[in-house]
Amino acid sequence: MNNDARAAILAISLVIPISILILWYSENNNVTGFSEKRQFKVLASFYPLYEFTKIIGGEKIDVSIIIPPGIEPHDWEPTIQDLQKMQNSDMVVINGAGLEPWTTKLVSANPDILIVDTSNGIPLLEKNKQIFNNQIQNDPHVWLDPILAKKQIQNIANGLINIDPQNTDYYQENAERYNAKLNLLDNKIRNELSICMKKDFLAFHDAFSYFAREYSLNQNTIIGINPSEEPTAVTLQQIIQKARNLDLHIIFTEEAVNPRISEVVANEIGGKVLTLSPIEIYEKNSDYIKRMEKNLSNLKEELCS
């Protein structure tokens, strides 16, 4: 064998192992890269929790809303397909405090599923026993108090850290950044309501107890904790008289309900109807903070008049 042949064989024997090594390294890197880019599937029960979760999870998660847009979360029940979708997720985020009783079905079907109850650690308000057939129920509307919403944010961050600990700093920083915005919202509400002389307002349904407690207001309502209720004629007359006694001029309604009942009360007292949003459903081109600021603006029309 001449020298040229020997050199060629030597070159081939060196190139082939190196090529195999490069190919292996490249494939290994691609697998690693895919693993790093994997988004965790997260489901949030309804709109505000979806927004909170999306902000905290960012690019690390793929988040969807469980309850369809425009549907009242108080009345919704999951289908078998909905339950299957939840079982296939990495994490389910709920409000808790009794708003999603259907979670018992989910746990029965899959005891190992991670459910983040965002009301965990929040002191809950109890509602009148007589309204609920002698059963104590908690008021679930904690998200309408920005201070309590901060606790919900942290509970969501903790859940994401649980399923994805390698990105702990990412989730925690996102949570702290958003909670700083909630602090600004809280300060805005306190400062602007501090100049108002009145404390009473008339909401459509009993959604603003936590908000009222936080800002030293008195919530009065047309109906109870479930917005699908209908007041009786006697109850409606009592509400009209109360509105007169309290010298109210604004009767509040909500986006997802027929304003007819609020309009009846407003007409009787010579007032007008505005929206006080419980922020339970999605609204295009808006977000939680913008809607809370709109609520503040509408409240001031009553409280500062």
Descriptive report:
The protein is of the alpha/beta class. It has two domains: 40-188, Nitrogenase molybdenum iron protein domain (Rossmann fold, 3-Layer(aba) Sandwich), CATH 3.40.50.1980; 195-303, 3-Layer(aba) Sandwich (Rossmann fold). The chain contains ten helices and eight strands. The protein has helices at 3-37, 47-57, 80-87, 103-109, 146-163, 168-193, 209-214, 233-245, 260-269, 288-303, and strands at 40-44, 61-65, 91-94, 115-117, 200-203, 218-221, 250-253, 272-275. Strands 2-1-3-4 form a four-stranded parallel sheet, covered by helices on one side. A two-stranded parallel sheet has the order 5-6.
What class do helices, strands and sheet pairing give?
alpha/beta
Portion in strands: 5-15%
Can you tell me the CATH architecture of the largest domain? Answer: 3-Layer(aba) Sandwich
Unreliable residue runs: 7-12, 18-35, 129-134
What's the number of helices? 10
Count the beta strands. Answer: 8
CATH superfamily of the largest domain: Nitrogenase molybdenum iron protein domain
Question: What name does the CATH topology of the largest domain carry?
Answer: Rossmann fold
